Amino acid sequence: MTEVVAVVLAGGLARRMGGGDKPLRLLGGRPLLAHVLERVAPQVAAVILNANGDPARFSGFGLPVVADPLPDYPGPLAGILAGLDWAAAHRPAAATVLSVPGDGPFLPPDLVARLEAARRASGLPLACAASGGWTHPPIGLWPVALRGELRAALLAGERKIDRWTARFGCATAEWEALPVDPFFNANAPEELAAAEALLPSLTAGPIG
Fold it and tell me: Where does 3-202 sit in CATH, by number?
């Protein structure tokens, strides 16, 4: 498997959370971002954070912070493009970028391996995660070689991930959603409270 760079997507406005940075909200006494990094970092060669505004607020994590390459918060595709551009400039050996949300504290430890296996088995260039009958387009593998096409699509107004990936073909890797959905994300205060309640059920080991 080729070298993989992960981009943690935190460039949105967090309207449902009341604004601010979702990855800095606390879960079990630690920022959501700390949970994400704990699960993702062992699977990849490097991790960067896609976030807009003053990067100093994330300085404690020691990550490169890369803003959207387009203005006006165009959505997760822009954050993925930021990751592809960073990988091309700083990790030329990395042919692939993994994208994950900054509010997903239960990501599986075999995320990269299973996405890559699905991509290879299908012969398709892209792969995304699925669980409980739902696909999760922001959680996937992206070839750095497609960054030119993605930039052109964004400049043309494309904002939907699955519509863009359909142009090239996207494999799906499925995970069980029980006892805890590994792709649970804390978009709103009540979901953060639900994640807090789920933490004890994870003490027996990683899910996935």
Answer: 3.90.550.10
